[in-house]
Amino acid sequence: MTAETATTARSYSTEGRETGSVPLPAALFGAEVNQHVLYEAIKSYLANQRQGTHKTKNRHEVSGQKSKMYRQKGTGRARAGSATSGTRVGGGRIFGPRPRDYRTHLPIRVRRLALASALTDRAASVHVVDDIALAAPSTKSIAKLIGGIGLTGKRVLMVSARDDGNLFLSCRNLPGLELQRAQELNAYTVMRADALVIEKTALAKIEEVFGK
User: Fold this and answer.
1) What Cα–Cα distance (Å) separates residue 75 from each residue in 65, 66, 71, 84, 101?
2) Could you tell me if 84 and 64 are in contact, meaning their C-beta atoms sit under 8 angstroms apart?
3) What is the mean pLDDT of the chain?
4) Does residue 1 lie in a domain region?
């Protein structure tokens, strides 16, 4: 289906005052929402975050008597071999989890299609702000910006076009706010957010990187 989305987004100053509107790239914010591609992209992203270091000890790795515990016949007891057998208390785990790689690969065109679908789905919740330049970390300034836009208490994804240590330090203590570079944007982080706050330079960067 084709999502019905706005072609423009409201623009704001760094203090949170509305200054007008900004057109959004139609290729990214007016695309057809492909739900299956979105599902595959999000599933792949989450799988790639898994470390895969889970491990249990098998019968050869646990401590215990490895030789036959008692003779095969004549004791009146059931036959038994090693004390580390998985059927005995304190023995190894049978078919337990072992280290593995969960990573999956999606073609770049599929990832970009998923991102365009996600951005289109969230287009009505996009807010464009002037580029934020902080001389020093200031959580209060970012909180004022988010409050001025009316996003306090919501899960917000802020998108910047550059690595800015002051901006990172200013955002990290605000609950529900996540900062991400435009070049690293993906379908999962977009869909996870209730609203997007994008710097003007970042919006141009998104179009440059993903709008091809």
Assistant:
1) 19, 20, 7, 20, 47
2) yes
3) 92
4) no
| pTM more than 0.85 | no
pLDDT in tens, 132-191: 999 999 999 999 999 999 999 999 999 999 988 999 999 999 999 999 999 999 999 999
Q: Which residue segment(s) compose the domain that 90 sits in?
A: 53-101
Confidence of residue 194 (pLDDT cuts 50, 70, 90): very high
Q: Which positions ≥6 away from 58 have C-beta within 8 Å?
A: 86, 92, 93, 94, 96
Three-state DSSP at 173 gives: coil
Quote the pLDDT of residue 40. Answer: 97
- Does residue 93 form part of some domain? yes
CA 185 to chain centroid, in Å, comes to 10
Classify residue 116: in a domain, yes or no. yes
Main-chain phi, psi angles of 178, to 5 degrees: -125, 135
Same domain, 26 and 123: yes
Q: Regarding beta strands 126-129 and 156-160, do their DSSP bridges make them parallel or antiparallel, or are they unpaired? A: unpaired
Same domain? 119 vs 201: yes
- Could you identify the residue written with the tokens 């999956």? 104
Q: How far apart are CA 130 and CA 24, in angstroms?
A: 15
CB within 8 A of 59, min separation 6: which ones?
A: 82, 84, 85, 86, 91, 92
In a domain, 79, yes or no: yes
Our count of domains for the chain comes to 2
Spatial separation of the C-alpha atoms in residues 26 and 43, rounded to whole Å: 26
